[in-house]
């Protein structure tokens, strides 16, 4: 991580510049040796109570939450080994059947979703994952853990999933890997959100994308690269209907009209815009 640091990154709260670690490999080797020695044949260090050498990126960030100390070890590989072991223990527990395959969890790094068709199976999944995780020194953060019931019913059923006797909050929507998921299983809110993000990106680049000295073909390619890529993120998961298709077509025309600098006062129809 030190080698990948920017040319002039801001120093941490201890005023230790990154260049010290970048240009003095002996310091890194020394710190690496100390931490390896501290972590060998003992439990994972509890940073909340331990005292030692830690290098936070944010002020007073001793608590390992969103702001983690800079790691001198390859914790990502170690974490993946642990999670792979943990989730192998739930392979046979029923989840959702897709193409004849049982799927009870989705994982990307430390973002995990557990899937089940009923409350009892979900509670069983949570209990086993919690138990196996704690054996490895990993703990589920209940503040960041949510439940959701995806249903077509008008009144969404409430479930009571608990961790250590504390009920996990049930939500109507949440973001997973940048994708907005709602309890009705529809894509309306996600498509509308993506339209807003695409328009916002176009507006921030409007000086370039509406420049008369740049050909329309070039502006179209730039828009496809920087605007459409944002809008179409995870579009493979969308469930479209006639209304959403019209919204997408309206976004397309909105972009064309602005790239071509066509004012609404000109009263040009979409067909005329496309023919130009």
Quick synopsis:
The chain is about 40% helix and about 10% strand.
Number of helices, where a helix is a run of at least 4 consecutive DSSP H or I residues = 9
Order of helices and strands: HHHEEEEHEEEEEEHHHHH
* Count of discrete structural domains: 3
Q: Tell the overall outline.
A: flat
Largest beta-sheet details: 2 strands, antiparallel
Low-confidence stretches: none
Terminal-residue CA separation: 51 Å
Features:
single chain, 276 residues, alpha+beta, two-stranded antiparallel sheet, RNA-directed DNA polymerase from mobile element jockey, nucleotidyltransferase, RT_dom, transferase
Explained architecture:
With 276 residues, the chain is an alpha+beta fold. It has 3 domains: 18-71, no CATH class; 78-179, no CATH class; 188-275, no CATH class. It is built from 9 helices and 10 strands. The chain starts with 17 loop residues before the first helix and ends with a helix. GO terms for molecular function: RNA-directed DNA polymerase activity.
């Amino acid at each position: 991580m030190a080698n990948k640091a920017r040319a002039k990154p801001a120093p941490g709260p201890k005023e230790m510049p990154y260049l010290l670690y970048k240009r003095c490999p002996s310091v890194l080797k020394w710190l690496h040796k100390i931490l390896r020695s501290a972590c060998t044949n003992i439990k994972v260090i509890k940073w909340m109570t331990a005292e030692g050498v830690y290098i936070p990126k944010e002020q007073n960030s001793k608590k390992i939450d969103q702001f983690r100390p800079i790691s001198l070890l390859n914790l990502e590989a170690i974490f993946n080994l642990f999670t792979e072991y943990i989730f192998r223990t739930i392979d046979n527990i029923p989840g959702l059947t897709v193409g004849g395959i049982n799927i009870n969890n989705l994982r990307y790094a430390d973002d995990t979703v557990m899937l089940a068709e009923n409350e009892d199976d979900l509670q069983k999944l949570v209990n086993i994952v919690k138990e196996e995780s704690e054996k490895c020194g990993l703990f589920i953060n209940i503040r960041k853990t949510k439940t959701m019931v995806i249903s077509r019913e008008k009144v969404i059923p409430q479930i009571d999933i608990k961790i250590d006797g504390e009920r996990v909050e049930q939500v109507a929507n949440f973001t997973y890997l940048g994708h907005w998921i709602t309890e009705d299983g529809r894509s309306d809110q996600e498509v509308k959100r993506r339209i807003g993000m695409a328009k916002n990106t176009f507006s921030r680049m409007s000086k370039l994308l509406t420049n008369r000295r740049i050909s329309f073909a070039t502006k179209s390619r730039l828009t496809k690269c920087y605007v459409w890529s944002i809008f179409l993120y995870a579009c493979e998961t969308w469930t479209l209907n006639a209304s959403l298709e019209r919204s997408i077509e309206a976004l397309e025309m909105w972009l064309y009209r602005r790239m071509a600098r066509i004012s609404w006062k000109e009263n040009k129809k979409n067909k005329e815009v496309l023919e130009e």
